[in-house]
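Re: [help] complex structure
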Amino acid sequence: MKKTFEFKTKTIVATAIGAALFTLLMLYVKIPTGIPETDVQTCYGVGSFFAAMFGPIAGFLIGFIGHAISDATYGAPWWSWVVSSAIALFITGLSYSKLKVDEGRFNFKDCLIFNVFQILGNVVAWVICAPVLDILIYKEPANLVFTQGAVAALWDAISMGVIGSILLFLYSKTRSGKGTLSKE
Amino acid sequence: MKAKLFDYIERDNFVFNLSGVTKLICFLLLSFGVMLSFDARVILGIMILSFIVLHISEIKFKQVRIMMYYVMGFLVINFFLTFLFSPHYGEEIYGTSHVLFRITDHYYVTSEQLLYQFTKMLKYAAVIPLGMMFIFTTNPSEFAASLNRIGVGYKAAFAVSLTLRYFPDMIRDYTDISLAQQARGLDLSRKEKLGTRLKNMMNIFVPLIFSSLDRVEVVSNAMDLRGFGKKKKRTWYAARPMSRNDYLSLAFCLLIFLGSLAMTLFVNHSRFWNPFI
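Output below.
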C-alpha cells in the first residue's frame, strides 16, 4: 500500500530530476497559442506526471524549486506564483496513493481520478491562491490578477490533462503488473 | 541552447568571499524589504545600494544582458496591462485624484496611477541586480549547504542541489533527443498546426522522461547504497565558515530591512507612501 506522504530517497531524487525538467521546459519549451503572452506551459504537464508518480511532497517541491529557479534566471522569483505552482502540483500529487501506474494500471477510472485532482489543483492555485497572494504581497490590481489567474488555470489544466494523462498512460504500458504471467 | 544558468566563475572580491549563508540571508532580507514596502524613497535607496553591490561584485554586463532585456520586456507589458485593466487603481490607493490628461472617459492618466506604476517598476529594478548577484556569485554546491543552515531540511536542500547538478544534463538530453527527432522529419516550428505540434512534442517528451525515470532509479539506488538519509543531520563539504565581513554584511542588511519596516509602520502608517495629502 502506498502512503500519500512518504519521503524516501527515491522521492528526493525524483523531485530533483523532476524540478530540473520543470525548469528546462518552463524556460525553453512553450507552445504559443496565438494569443500574446499566453503559452501552453508544457512544464505543468510533465510536472503533473511526476506528482502523480511520486506523491504530493515531490509535486510541491518540483513546483517550488522548478519555478523558483526558472524565475531566478531573470533576477527575482515572483513568489506568489512560485507558491501557487507548488500548490497546484501538491494537490495533483494527492492522486498518487489512488493510482497504480507503476503496476501497469491506468484505466479510464484512474484517468478520471488524476484529472479531477489536477483540475481541482489548478483552480485552487491559479484562481484563488495566486491572485490573493498577488494582491496581498504585490498589491496588484484585483481584476488584472484574477483574469491572469483564470487564463493560467485553463491552459495549465489543458497542459496537465493532455500531456500528463498521455504520459501516465504510455508509462503504464511499459510496466507489467502483478499476476500478469500466464502458464502455457 | 546552452546552459547559461548558474555559470559560476570564481573571483576574488568582497562579494564572492562572503559565505553562501550570508548572501542568501542578505538577498532574502533586502528583497523582502523591497517587497513589503511601496515607498518609492526606500526602494530607490535599496536600488542604488544593489547597483553598487553589483558593481563591487565585478559581474560583467555581458553575463546579465539577456536577462536585463527579458525583464525590461516583462515590465513594459505589465505596465500597459495594469493600466488597461485598472486605470483608477492609483486613485483607489491614495484616495485623491490629480488628472494629468484624458484619453477617453474611462482611461485618463492621474499622477496617483503613475506613482503606483512607477513604484512597482522600481521594486523590480531594485531586486533584480540582487538576484543576479546572488546567482552569479554563489557556488551551486555551497547553496544547498546554505539552505540547510537557514533551517530548510537537508533532504529538501539536497533536492535543490541535485536539481542544479542535473539541469545541464537535462538540457543536453533534451537537445540530443530534439535534434534526433527533427532529423527524422518532426516539425516543431510555427508552420505546423497546434495539434500536430503537440503530438510532435510528445515524441520528444516520451524518451526524455522515460530516460529520466531510469536515471532516478540509478541515482536513488546509489544514494541508498551510500546510506543517504539514515541520520537526522549531515555535514556539507562545500560549507564555508563565517568571517567578520559576513557578520558586518548581515547586520547591515538587517538594519536596512528594519528601516524599511519602520518606514511602513511608523512614518507612512500604511504600505504606501502618500505624497498627495
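Residues 84 and 125 of chain A are 5 Å apart (CA to CA).
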